[in-house]
Design a protein that fits this description.
The chain is built from 5 helices and 6 strands, in the order H-H-H-H-E-E-E-E-E-H-E. The protein is of the alpha/beta class. One of its GO terms (molecular function) is hydrolase activity, hydrolyzing O-glycosyl compounds.
């Protein structure tokens, strides 16, 4: 029985050494609790940093989207300005061609002399001045039109240069923001990895605590069993001594009686013929109880379900827990007071998902299921669902 007990304790200790190589073999529950508390505090700090990084990356994504919109608008304006410049250049060339044609025609038909004759044919000075003024107005109008077209072209050319400069600056700003966003994404990935490592270490500490608790329980049970066996052995020895003394006393009494009555042949009774008290058989020690494996059953809720998508312009790619919806779309938004964040849930008609997001309108028994496209959200609509909290 003792061998079985020692074998049980040895198995527990061997399991601890195999499963938990990163922990010292002789760590007490107090040491493990301290380690666990330190990791929990570190995880809380990392979670805070992750939330701040999540806010920053969402802001950067919004700035990138705003700059892309400005680049698109500026490209459209620049394209329109270039078209206006080409149109103005064509008008200037057409106007110059018209003026050149008129001058050529005037030279060929000797219209200059005719203009002078028209002035000389005036009846009086007033008519002469009116004709001269009319000719001057016509000439000035042609010059003004050509000049105005030239000014319009200069303004458009200047506007084009400004827009091109703005476009280059917007592209530089966009590249800078995208680089900052990439750094934030990398920072979030590192923080998530640290949280995952802490979770793994917490699981190992939990296993170590279970092994240490089992070892202490086995050691306590072994000591109790040893004390019980020692007490039983001591009681058996006392009982044997008592019976031996009684047997010896009875034997001495028989001998004394035989010596006082010699006529009677009384067979002597040897001590070997007396019954000898045998040691009582020690009871077999009870086997230590094997701890039963706990079982959990999912909590079931009747909830109202809506739908949302990161493809919508008003939403971002990252949830309240920092999950990238582009890589892990199977996420639901919940009220943390009803379903804790990080829980695994099964939604009827949707499937198994992680409760990894929140929302201003998600209060009480409302769950918001994420879909990759807006069309899937419209198809889902609003419906009543059964939600089972798995873990």
């Amino acid at each position: 029985m003792k061998k079985q007990m020692f074998g049980f304790v040895a198995t527990l200790l061997l399991g601890a050494n195999i499963l938990l190589p990163v922990f010292a073999q002789a760590e007490s529950l107090s040491d493990l609790d301290k380690k666990e508390s330190a990791i929990v505090r570190q995880s809380d700090k990392i979670s805070g940093e992750l939330q701040l990084a999540l806010n920053d990356v969402n802001e950067k994504y919004q700035e990138v989207n705003d700059i892309r919109i400005k680049i698109s608008q500026n490209e459209a304006t620049l394209k329109k300005t270039k078209a206006n410049i080409i149109e103005t250049e064509q008008k200037i060339e057409q106007r110059k061609a018209v003026i050149a044609e008129r001058m050529k025609t005037a030279q060929v038909n000797n219209r200059t002399d005719r203009s002078i004759e028209a002035l000389l044919e005036a009846k009086d000075l007033g008519e002469f001045l009116n004709r001269a003024f009319a000719m001057s107005v016509i000439q000035n109008a042609e010059k003004t039109k050509v000049a105005s077209l030239g000014e319009a072209k200069d303004q458009l050319t200047e506007l084009k240069a400004t827009q091109e400069k703005t476009q280059n600056q917007l592209k530089k700003d966009s590249q800078k923001l995208e680089a900052e966003t990439a750094k934030l994404d990398n920072k979030m990935a590192n923080l998530k990895q640290e949280l995952a490592d802490n979770k793994t270490n917490l699981a190992k500490i939990s296993q170590a605590k279970e092994v240490e608790t089992a070892r202490q329980a086995a050691e306590k049970a072994q000591k109790a069993q040893a004390a019980k066996e020692a007490a039983e052995k001591e009681a058996a020895e006392k009982e044997a001594i008592k019976k031996a003394a009684e047997t010896k006393k009875a034997s001495q009494a028989v001998k004394a009686q035989a010596s006082s009555q010699p006529a009677k042949t009384t067979p002597s009774v040897s001590s070997s013929q007396q019954p000898v008290a045998s040691t009582s058989e020690q009871p077999e020690p009870a086997k230590p109880a094997v701890p039963s494996t706990p079982t959990t059953s999912g909590r079931t809720l009747q909830m109202e379900s809506t739908a949302y998508s990161c493809a919508e312009s008003v939403n971002t790619y990252f949830t309240a827990m920092g999950i990238d919806l582009r890589q892990n779309p199977q996420v639901v938004a919940v009220d943390p007071s009803v379903i804790p964040l990080g829980s695994m849930v099964e939604v009827s008609g949707y499937g198994i998902a992680i409760a990894g997001d929140t929302g201003g309108a998600i209060k009480g028994n409302i769950i918001d299921c994420h879909f990759s496209t807006v069309e899937e959200c419209i198809q889902w609509g609003r419906r009543s669902v059964t939600v089972t909290v798995i873990s």
